[in-house]
Amino acid sequence: MNSAETLPQPIVKPARPPRPAAPFLPMSKQEMQALGWDQCDIILVTGDAYVDLPSFGMAIIGRLLESQGYRVGIISQPDWHSAEPFRALGRPRLFFGVTAGNMDSMVNRYTSDRRIRSDDAYTPGAAGGQRPDRALIVYAQRVREAYRDVPIVVGGIEASLRRIAHFDYWSGKVRRSVLLDAKADLLVYGNAERQIVEIAHRLDAGESIENLRDLRGTAFVRGAHARDFIEIDSRHLDAPGPLNPPVDPYAMEPAAGQMAVGGRPATPAPAAASSAPSPAAAMPATAPQETVVRFMRRVKSADRSRSVIRMPDYEQVAADPVLYAHASRILHREANPHNAQALVQRHGTVDVWLNPPPIPLSTEEMDLIYELPYQRQPHPAYGNAEIPAYKMIRFSISIQRGCFGGCTFCSITEHEGRIIQNRSEGSVLREIEQIRDNVPGFTGVISDLGGPTANMYRIACKSREIESKCRLPSCVYPQVCENLNTDHTPLIELYRKARALPGIKKVLISSGVRYDLAVESPEYVKELVQHHVGGYLKIAPEHMREGPLSKMMKPGMGSYYRFKELFDRFSKEAGKEQYLIPYFIAAHPGTTDEDMLELAVWLKQNGFRADQVQAYLPSPMSTATAMYHSGKNPLRRVTRNSEEVVVPKGDRQRRLHKAFLRYHDPNNWPMLREALRRMGRTNLIGNGPQHLVPKFQPLGTGQQHEGRRMAEPKVACGSKSTAPTRPFRTQHVRDRRQARKPR
After folding, report:
1. Burial of 320 (0-12, 13-18, 19+ CB in 10 A)
2. Residue 735 pLDDT greater than 80, yes or no
């Protein structure tokens, strides 16, 4: 299934009479009986506490399925040590939906230094250890143990980011698709509302789960090659030399007369446009690595709907980091739902098949999803226990989805896509009124109107035709695209109407502002600074040196300085003392010790002291993770001789990079002095204001650095705030922590 012309089925199409909305989706048989149910149609298993709020994935999916006429139950944070808790609601009539929760379970439990976190923001009382490692796999296997013949559909962020062979930071190995380890029938990636509704309707109509192979945004296992598809084999690296323009490294065709690495002529292959299935299907799973081929991603227009790109096999990418980088490049280039090809990756004797991404939701569909009858509170079963994630986000509103920034360390694009999906102005205002009138503890302050970024609302490509053909990973790097409509007027109008609502005292913007986009609209910056900043505004330069910035796909410091000038000017005009809180990241691929030293010097010169910092965490499937694992740059064509990326990997070097960000901490001074001497920068050691670290060492400091346990923030893969660092404070402003907002 792969066609740019494929029209999505609308999300709103109840196949059965609507039911009255349940006060809360039931979590016990007693609640089912109170609703008059003898059986659930669908049961959702989640690693999070059940909070009936549209910032929690299971609440959205559950309420959406309920709106389609289905009886939906929830099993929240079950004890995974046996199958019995997974039988709590009985056998569902249609299927089990399984997710690890709003965060990848490994990111949720471990810091970037692989230390176990003591708390969990998505659990009552913030208790840690309430979900297993690799929760998606464990839950799905327990469900299979409880009801062997019931279909299992896995989804959520953990499924999205592990849908193909992926590097796993915590084991240091490439793991196969989570679909295989979970032994699930189907995987849905992205936010998945469109897919899950279609799955429910088709299973309800009597179709078998094995027949659901044509849905966008899904992955499934196929035992044999699909002979009705044209296969574009991309299991090999490109070779240096002249190429026939235009070139794209995904479809494969040997160049005429080209020689293999070993001196043998390359075996000719039929053109990708051939209507016959590619003979690549008959190739062994581990084709000889010395075979040299050319890539041309071209098939006849009439054949695009039945073409598929074969990625390097799991066994190949597990054994060869360079092929892993090549596979990562293929995946990220096939991300635009309007032109993406289906992908297939061999795992042993079976194929994992990835259909193209789902068509983005319309504004009407977004409104429907966010205006379902949520209670906007945790389930009563939790009593008075506090759920930190809920407390942080209960007065916050999502106005958009997706991000076209393309930051390589971020997982938003892999999960939500690059095309912005917007809610209507009226829908957002109605949700503010819902919070004002119904949420306990509301004092008149909306904590955020945002999304993955604060200021991409209603911003899109000026041309639908250009957008449908574009394959670039970012609309704002290396500079803002000339085809991008950067008009912030709709967002400005929304801000003004929101704060004018009766009973609303203040509307804050807590999502990260994309400042290189904001400077395109000084009017927006003025509106933001003078009305929606509570003293501090967080932005994410991430670094200030070209080396790491080019690997992050982040703008240079020129945009930061332009934004800061506007921020300071408009704050002064409003008579307000306000400060920018910049995020920076340590040990990102492409970062040298010298880069971190220069950043530390810049921080001191500008009066910034880091409260808490975090080293880069390689989340599954991101482009930066491919750099971390392979030492190659998949932002460009990957070959054996292509660009090498310096990667800070060892624990000592990663600690050093974090220490540079906390240059003012006496516990870091011994390590920094040693590094400065090694780098020939002893001029920065001294007791004057021009020095980075002093010569003296306070008593009782420095010795415990190696074993120090620093509190670190949780970074949600695909969450609204994905910049993996904590706020900074200026030396003349008292320390004030800014709470991260989960999603």
Report:
1. middle
2. no
The model's pTM: 0.85
Determine the 3-state secondary structure of 156 from DSSP.
Answer: coil
Q: What beta strand segments (E) does 151-306 contain?
A: 152-154, 166-168, 173-175, 186-188, 218-222, 230-233
C-alpha to C-alpha distance for 343 and 325, rounded to whole angstroms? 16
The helix (run of H) or strand (run of E) holding residue 479 is none
Nearest Cα to Cα of residue 232 among 253, 256, 260: 253
For the chain, the first-to-last Cα distance in angstroms comes to 31
What is the 3-state secondary structure of 69-82?
CCCEEEEECCCCCC
DSSP 233: E
Token pair, residue 308, equals 């598929």
> What pLDDT digit, counting tens, does each position of 62-119 carry?
999 999 999 999 999 999 999 999 999 999 999 999 999 999 999 999 999 999 999 9
Mean pLDDT computed over 242-258? 39
Rounded to an integer, what distance in angstroms lies between the CA atom of residue 604 and that of residue 601? 5
- ∠ CA 91-92-94, rounded to 5°: 140
- The first and second tokens of residue 138, run together, are 């464990």
How confident is the model at residue 161, as a pLDDT? 96
Residue from 496, 568, 484 nearest 532 by CA: 496
| β-bridge pairing 42-46 and 72-76 | parallel
The DSSP secondary structure of 100-116, one letter per residue, reads --SS-HHHHHB-TTSPB
CB 508 within 8 A of CB 533: yes
Tell me how crowded residue 472 is: count the other CB atoms within 10 A of its CB.
12
β-bridge partners, 73: 43
